[in-house]
Amino acid sequence: MKQNKKNRLNSPERFEWIPPLDICELLNIKEGMRLLDTGAGTGYFAKMLLDTIPNLTIECLDTDPAMVEEIRSITPASGSIRAQLTDGNHYPLEDSSIDAAYSIALFHELKDFNTFTSEHKRVLKPGAPLLIIDWEKILESTTRGPSLEYRIDTEDVTDVLEKSEFKNISIHRNFVYHFAVRCENI
User: For residue 100, what are the domain limits?
Assistant: First the structure.
């Protein structure tokens, strides 16, 4: 992994843009839960969530072997962050085993939304929430992150989730450069 990419992913200012406590509140995270971080990158957000609420188990999936190795290098001795490589088509997790899931700045990069949603439907427990956080598709927010043409509209995200039969879909715009779409596996 290139150092400048790692520095960007591990930048403390990302927590100003997307505070871990906001993620915890949107997902109603409680101690003892098992979470899924899809497209976990360096695992920086998983570590911060674990620092915010202890006694979580966070399954971190990524398609990049260098990212998985980076996550493993920060994993606490308790093993409460588990990094696994995925091909993106099948998550190496049991059916109905996850209490809540999130992805950060991943959705706009997906080539196949249906695989993402079907795998989340499979691994999430009934009623469990999914939170998709991605870059706002507005010109004012392009001082950071990908250019406007690579971003995705919130309406496109909600359409994908509705077609995949997620329920209780809501949009949250309380982040600096990002939006969040929350839904439930019902």
Answer: 3-184
Q: Are 51 and 116 in contact (CB under 8 A)?
A: no
Largest CA distance in the chain: 43
Comparing CA positions, the residue from 100, 126, 102 lying closest to residue 180 is 102
Overall pTM surpassing 0.85 (yes/no): yes
* Tokens of residue 45, six digits: 């957000």
Place of tokens 């591990």: 10
Instruction: Bin 82: left if φ > 0, else alpha if -120 < ψ < 50, else beta.
Output: beta
User: In whole angstroms, what is the distance from residue 15 CA to residue 17 CA?
Assistant: 5
pLDDT at position 146: 78
Q: Beta strand pairing status for 167-172 and 178-184?
A: antiparallel
Looking up residue 86, the CATH number of its domain turns out to be 3.40.50.150
Place of tokens 């696994």: 84
pLDDT tens digits, one per residue of 120-140: 999 999 999 999 999 988 766
Domain count, the chain: 1
